[in-house]
Amino acid sequence: MNSFKVTPITPSFAAEVSGIDLSKPLASGIAAEIDAAMDAYGALVFRDQMLGDPEQRAFGEALGTIETSRATVDVEKSRLQDKTLNDISNLAADGTILAADARKRMFNLGNQLWHSDSSFKAVPAKYSMLHARVIPPSGGATEVADMRGAWDALDPEIQEKVRDLICEHSLLFSRQLLGFTEFTETERASFAPVRQRLVRYFPSTGRRSLYLSAHIGRIVGWPVPEALALIRDLMEHATERRFVYSHTWRVNDLLIWDNRTTMHRGRPYDDKRYPRDMRRVTLTDVASTLQQAA
Fold first, then answer.
1. Hey, where are the domains in the chain?
2. Average pLDDT per block of 10 residues along the chain, 294 residues long
3. CATH number of the domain at 5-291, out of 3.30.420.10, 3.60.130.10, 3.10.310.10, 3.30.70.890?
4. Distance of alpha carbon 90 from alpha carbon 79, whole angstroms
5. Is the whole model's pTM more than 0.90, yes or no?
């Protein structure tokens, strides 16, 4: 029996967790219970969590290994010195709102595309844990899409067609969708494409999941136009409203999603007028998708 309460938001996807204070060290067995809830629902909402950077980092460490490489432009100008936290905000290093034409702001608009965190890394992400410190008065929701449900709903002939495909992922691909091409040579080298399975299998649940992302730019062995047409069709299917949970933020919310079985995107807000301070801890997976079960 769980020592915290899990209330489903939909019958099969996303849930709200209550009865736990994440600012304190997790009691024995709690991490395993959270993992089990993530297996069941793919995304969990924890309300009213008073977390500073050390507490958020400690919670991440209790569940796995934290990524320490931050995939963004102008990373040397980050206002967060702790490399275990990602700055998901519209704030410059001095705490002011980014200028409308700031390079980092242009790059960050890519977060409004459906994606899976770090799918562009050889070993991609497992969980992402996003905490709200300051939120705007309206807008800025985070939407999460259920890729296991999307797989289950595919026609069997489509499942057979895509089951063994390998895709190339890169930040270069996703940002080019918005016309952002101003990368340094160092960034281009860092963001070189990596290969990932299009369909993943999870022995812990016996379920398969689509592994989609705006970071996909090619399917290995396919002509690029044909590949992108297929990926677009799959993205449209996987983000139908029946598969999507939209999270309206409150200060001190913590939202966790499993990047292996979901996609997500941020929604627009008036980022030229209102500050939004969100901080994310991201856990790395244990191996490349190519090394994991087909």
1. 5-291
2. 84 95 95 97 98 97 91 67 90 94 92 97 97 98 98 98 98 94 89 96 95 98 98 98 97 98 98 97 95 73
3. 3.60.130.10
4. 11
5. yes
